[in-house]
Design a protein that fits this description.
The protein is of the alpha+beta class. The chain is 34% helix and 23% strand.
Length: 86
């Protein structure tokens, strides 16, 4: 399973989003310091879920980071998050 698929699966399971976009942007960062050049290291997530209702932007980011802790510990170098409530 690719990192992109793993991220998508975990977010779908945890948040049942109405909108979910997971973009692999690793190719845009090839060669910079800290990049493992694996093609699976830099991602952008846009997620909309009712489970974010009542949470601040920082709290929503923490929720996403918590769900993706394994991915962040095993190869994801950068994760840009936009997490919104409907």
């Amino acid at each position: 399973m690719t990192m992109e698929m793993s991220i998508r699966e975990r977010l779908e399971t945890a948040f049942s989003p109405s909108i979910l976009q997971v973009l692999n942007e690793s190719h845009l960062h090839a060669g910079h310091a800290g990049s493992p050049n694996s093609g699976q290291s830099h991602f952008r997530v846009y997620i909309v879920s009712e489970k974010f209702l009542g949470f601040s932007r920082v709290e929503r980011h923490r929720l996403v980071n918590d769900v993706l802790a394994q991915e962040l510990a095993s190869g994801v170098h950068a994760l840009a998050i936009t997490a919104e409530a409907p």
